[in-house]
Structure formats: structure tokens, C-alpha cells
Specification:
The protein folds into two domains: 41 residues, no CATH class; 85 residues, Rossmann fold (3-Layer(aba) Sandwich), CATH 3.40.50.300. 37% of the residues lie in helices and 25% in strands. The chain is built from six helices and five strands, in the order αββααβααβαβ. The strands form two sheets. Strands 3-4-5 form a three-stranded parallel beta sheet. Helix 6 links the parallel strand 4 and strand 5. The longest helix is centred in the middle third of the chain and has 13 residues. The chain is globular, with a radius of gyration of 15 Å. About 4% of the residues have low confidence. It comes from Tauraco erythrolophus.
Length: 134
């Protein structure tokens, strides 16, 4: 949902469990930036495919990990994913890999099970950026 919103400025309510690679250019500070976004839904099957996940990590230059503020399990998986990314990327170089944690569905505050403070503290402890969006 976040990727489609970024690319099209539209909100679509229903999404499948499909993996896509999108390309999109954007002017930032007077320069054209080309984004290649590998949008991967989280699922139990993919969690078991270590080599596919390793391939995605090697492909990417930065990471945006999205969880639902209404779904504790989507939040709880983040530390392991971030450690996996850092081990794969930072082990090869001394550069810090850019990772941002995004709490989604902020508009559903009445269904919230993960507090903003928990998200901020996790990001701080893992040296990542943090945002909440809807």
C-alpha cells in the first residue's frame, strides 16, 4: 500500500501477497533520482526462503521496513530482519546501511497495539530512522 501510494499518489484498499519491482523517477533538490523498489510482502513462506532474502538484501542500497501499528507480530519480526540486513550488508563494507522503520496505519489509532514510543525506541536501539504514517 505504501509503495503504490508513493508511486501513484492513490490509495488502494486491497492488495495481494505479490512481489513486484517498480521503477520511478523523482526530482529531489533539482536532481533526478531513479528509484528501483523491490516491494516484498512479509509472509511465513518467505521467512523460510533464506537465499531469496539474501538476494534481495544484496540487490538493495537501502531498506524501508513497514509494520502495522495494529499487528504486534509484524513489529516483533523487525529486530531479526534488521540484524540479518546489517550482517549481510555491513559485513562487506564499513558503511552504515540506511534502514528506516515505518509504522503504518496511524489512522487506525483505536486498533493500535504497538505504541509510537515502542517504534521510536526500537529504531533508536538499532540505529535506524523511524516514521509513523497512514
Amino acid at each position: 500500500a505504501l509503495t503504490v501510494r508513493f508511486l501513484t499518489r492513490r490509495f488502494i484498499g486491497e492488495y495481494g501477497d505479490m512481489e513486484f519491482i517498480y521503477s520511478h523517477s523523482l526530482i529531489v533538490d533539482g536532481r533526478e533520482i531513479l528509484f528501483h523498489i523491490w516491494d516484498v510482502p512479509n509472509s511465513q513462506e518467505q521467512a523460510e526462503e533464506g537465499s531469496s532474502e539474501e538476494k534481495r538484501i544484496q540487490w538493495a542500497d537501502s531498506f524501508v521496513l513497514v509494520y502495522s501499528i495494529c499487528d504486534r507480530a509484524s513489529f516483533n519480526i523487525l529486530p531479526l530482519k534488521i540484524q540479518f540486513i546489517k550482517a549481510a550488508k555491513e559485513g562487506q563494507s564499513q558503511e552504515k546501511v540506511p534502514i528506516v522503520i515505518v509504522g503504518n496505519k496511524r489512522d487506525l489509532h483505536h486498533q493500535r497495539v504497538v505504541s509510537s514510543e515502542e517504534g521510536r525506541l526500537l529504531a533508536l536501539s538499532l540505529d535506524c530512522g523511524f516514521y509513523e504514517v497512514s
